[in-house]
């Protein structure tokens, strides 16, 4: 008989141990009753602990559906029998979103798009109710409320009804509520919606600090480019499908050149003809970079943008009202990958 002792256990190769992702989504599909098109179509991606991760997509791309599933509000149903697809999975720090909703909610802080504060109550009272919902009480809860109000800069206004707070202060209190039970993952639905630029900057400062000081993983849905730019990685959604996942820098560098936009003097009706002539004269074009008409303008991608712009301007003088050339943005990435504007 061989006896296993601590000394003769095989050495663990740490390099082969993968950390548990903060969020894992695999083959997630959801079809609303009566809809032919799935709202989510076999979506798979991981978010690693400590990441700030954006889910970017236009209206109707499936962001809110994903949000509802991850927050355990809704079970995904893949077919007419309203059953979960057999290969679908979603976990938060290894806990199954469908089978262990209670464990998931303990690890998840949520900021919904619709405000969840009671405006007639004070900041203190809003947090107290939130704490009770999570089974917190006594000195521990009092300490957590003090910490939240001080972290989010609301200490001196704690006894005022929330209806007197600005939009930015309310969003900070929402953050305090979401973080009161000290979750490892913060999920936010369109967090900047309705905030002025100063409040947005303030919100992002708070998010950066939550990650740096507490190691919180942050996942947010957005359709704002500047918000997506600030994230470590982003998942681009379109029509229920995950189009790609990568860092903003890598996504933009995948566009092999500058982005050129041409506005025809004779208006949008002249754009298609102009696009054909530019395509014929200045090719070859990389796949996805050829001239196309978007919102009445001709848009194309070329490595030597400034020279091409000068050549277009001298080729058809009088036909061009405005020409622009610039580095690709995430909007360009979306256009390049989907052929549609965000
Ligand atoms: N309750 C519902 N019943 C039927 N179809 C729905 C329902 N909710 C959403 N859909 C459809 O599912 C698809 C995805 O919608 P979803 O709201 O998830 O997208 P979104 O990216 O969050 O858009 P938005 O930013 O406008 O909220 C859309 O085609 C939408 O019309």
Radius of gyration, CA atoms, in whole angstroms: 25 Å
User: Can you name the CATH architecture of the largest domain?
Assistant: 3-Layer(aba) Sandwich
Broad shape = globular
Number of helices in the DSSP assignment: 11
Bound ligands: adenosine-5'-triphosphate
N to C succession of SSEs: EEEHEEHEHHHEHEHEEHEHEEHEH
Low-pLDDT sequence parts: none
CATH homologous superfamily (4th level) name of the largest domain: P-loop containing nucleotide triphosphate hydrolases
Strand pairing plus helix content: what structural class? alpha/beta
Give the helix proportion (percent range).
25-40%
Q: What is the top-level CATH class of the largest domain?
A: Alpha Beta
Separation, N- and C-terminal Cα atoms: 67 Å
**Widest sheet, order of strands:** 6-7-8-3-9-10
Q: Please indicate the percent range of residues in DSSP E strands (runs of 2 or more).
A: 15-25%
CATH topology of the largest domain: Rossmann fold
Largest sheet: 6 strands, mixed
Tally of strands: 14
Count of individual domains: 2
Overall pLDDT score: 90
């Amino acid at each position: 008989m061989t006896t296993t002792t601590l000394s003769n256990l095989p050495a663990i190769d740490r390099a082969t141990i993968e950390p548990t992702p903060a969020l894992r989504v695999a083959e997630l599909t959801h079809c609303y009753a009566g809809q032919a098109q799935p709202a989510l179509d076999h979506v798979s991606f991981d978010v690693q602990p400590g990441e700030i991760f954006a889910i970017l997509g236009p209206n109707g791309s499936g962001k809110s559906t994903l949000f509802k599933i991850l927050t355990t509000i809704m079970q995904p149903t893949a077919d007419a029998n309203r059953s979960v697809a057999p290969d679908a999975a979603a976990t938060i720090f290894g806990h199954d979103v469908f089978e262990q909703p209670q464990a998931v909610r303990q690890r998840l802080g949520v900021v919904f798009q619709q405000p969840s504060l009671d405006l007639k109550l004070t900041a203190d009272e809003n947090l107290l109710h939130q704490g009770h919902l999570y089974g917190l009480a006594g000195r521990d809860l009092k300490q957590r409320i003090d910490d939240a109000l001080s972290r989010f800069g609301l200490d001196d206004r704690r006894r005022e009804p929330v209806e007197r707070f600005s939009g930015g202060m309310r969003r900070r209190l929402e953050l305090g509520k979401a973080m009161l039970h000290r979750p490892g993952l913060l999920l936010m639905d369109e967090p900047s919606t309705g905030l002025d630029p100063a409040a947005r900057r303030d919100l992002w400062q708070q998010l950066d600090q939550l990650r740096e000081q507490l190691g919180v993983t942050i996942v947010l849905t957005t359709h704002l480019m500047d918000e997506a730019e600030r994230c470590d990685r982003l998942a681009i959604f379109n029509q229920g499908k995950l189009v790609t996942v990568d860092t903003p820098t890598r996504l933009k560098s995948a566009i092999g050149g500058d982005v050129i936009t041409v506005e025809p003097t004779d208006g949008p009706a002249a754009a298609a003809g102009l696009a054909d002539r530019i395509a014929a004269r200045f090719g070859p074009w990389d796949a996805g970079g050829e001239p196309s008409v978007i919102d009445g303008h001709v848009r194309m991608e070329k490595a030597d943008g400034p020279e091409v712009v000068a050549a277009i301007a001298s080729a058809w003088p009088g036909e061009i009202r405005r020409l622009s050339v610039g580095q690709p943005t995430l909007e360009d990435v979306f256009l390049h990958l989907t052929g549609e504007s965000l």
